[in-house]
Amino acid sequence: MKLTNEENKKIDLMKKDLISLRHHLHKNPELAMEEKNTSDLIAKKLKGLGIEVHRNIGKTGLVGVLKSGNGNKAIALRADMDALPILEETNLEYQSVNKGVMHACGHDGHMAMLFGAAQYLAKNKNFNGTVYFIFQPAEESGGGAEAMIRDGLFTKYKIDSVYGLHVSSVLESGYFSIHDGPVHASSSNFDIKIIGKDTHGAHQERGIDSILVASEIVMSLQTIVSRRISTLDTAVVSVTKFHGGTAYNILPKDVTLNGTVRTHKNEVRDKIKTEMEKIIRGICQGYGANYDFKYKHGDRAVVNTKKESLQAISVAEKISGKEKVLTEPRPIMGSEDFGFYLEKKPGCYAHLGNGPEKGVNHNSKFDFNDEILMTGTKYWIQLAQDLLE
After folding, report:
1. Of 297, 317, 343, at which residue does a domain stop?
2. Do both 152 and 257 map to the same domain?
3. Of 80, 88, 139, 308, which is the active-site residue?
């Protein structure tokens, strides 16, 4: 059932306090796995509502547990807590006081919206089941979701499905983007060391030119996406660092290449690794060079499940109206560690429009749009009430 006018009025009464909380969080940002003060504040406020709080799950992470009625179903709602290593240039009255650290991706707003939902649900308890409020560390650097899972998030707590909400600077203010299937790409990093033979720059025949070998590898790696991966699959292979050499007249022994791989499918991610090594090995053998190749999986692809996505779409339409809920697939090549949760449980990761006028995420002049605070808060409340009837 859609939130009534009376319920909406009750929720709207929290707006001033939630803005104040959001501004406090923005002013006092903390980097990944250093969110101690943030975690302390959220835990204290949740306990003040009578919500059971479990600390130190994923180091600084915490879980609030709220039960109502006798229902057996349980859902988890997640907000990320960490900030970015960016020097803020907004000149806002609540600008970061921690120099070089900034909430430039909306996590301050994510926390405020989820706390708002917790506050309302704790006071009214108009649902039947259990809501787990996940306040997660280290989304930006990766590892926060994985750390919470490692510390027993899905073994200590009986969670049936899990949901996430993130602001988008691309979407107009108050619009939602929700669909099933791939939402964010997986992220893998690679390190390649080419080992040649150093020599004088005027006597190239006496050495093995590691810069030439590495250059050919960089060019050939670009054929993986264009010639070795299906045109129906999305993928990115980018060399982002190229280091070698110390002098004008010396061909260096070693060159290192580093970069990133993004895909929406695990099988494509694994195929890219195989194809990369084939290329590296073949080129090095042709020149008589050696190599060392490391490929590390990072964030998993965020892939929404169909049933949970349809439920989330229905909720968003009740909050913003059908015309403001975009349901066509809009996969993003950026990564998000929410994918670790969706490998374990069904769920849905949604985007809420912050409005382009508030700046681009990860920019020194970005700010969360306070006008959508209540939209996100109501989304969480409606979701809990709909799924835990």
Report:
1. 297
2. no
3. 139
Q: Tokens 């050499």 map to which residue?
A: 245
Per the structure block, which two tokens stand in for 387? 């799924």
Give the chain's largest Cα–Cα span.
84
Asked if 310 and 289 sit in the same domain, the reply is no
> What separation in angstroms does the CA of 234 have from each of 134, 214, 220?
31, 25, 18
Confidence band of 249 (pLDDT split at 50, 70, 90) = very high
Phi, psi of 309 (to 5 degrees): -70, -40
Q: Tokens standing for 282? A: 């073949």
Give the CA radius of gyration of the chain.
24
How many structural domains comprise the chain? 2
- Is residue 14 located within the same domain as residue 162? yes
Q: What is the pLDDT of residues 85-133, one digit of tens each?
A: 999 999 999 999 999 999 999 999 999 999 999 999 999 999 999 999 9
212 and 144 in one domain? no
Catalytic annotation, pick one of 34, 35, 82, 336: 82
- Catalytic-residue membership of 82: yes
Residue of 162, 149, 135, 125 lying closest to 60 (CA atoms): 135
Range of the domain at 92: 5-183+302-387
Claim to verify: residue 103 and residue 48 sit in the same structural domain:
yes
Residues 151 and 203 occupy one common structural domain: no
Calculate ∠ Cα 161-167-170, nearest 5°.
125
- Virtual torsion, Cα 305, 114, 154, 307, nearest 10 deg: -20
Q: Is residue 263 within 8 Å of 301, Cβ to Cβ?
A: yes
Phi, psi of 90 (to 5 degrees): -85, -25
Last residue of a domain, one of 252, 279, 297: 297
Residue 347: other Cβ atoms inside 10 A: 26
pLDDT digits (tens, 9 = 90+) for 150-174: 999 999 999 999 999 999 999 999 9
Here the tokens at position 249 are: 């007249």
CB contact at 8 A, 351 and 168: yes
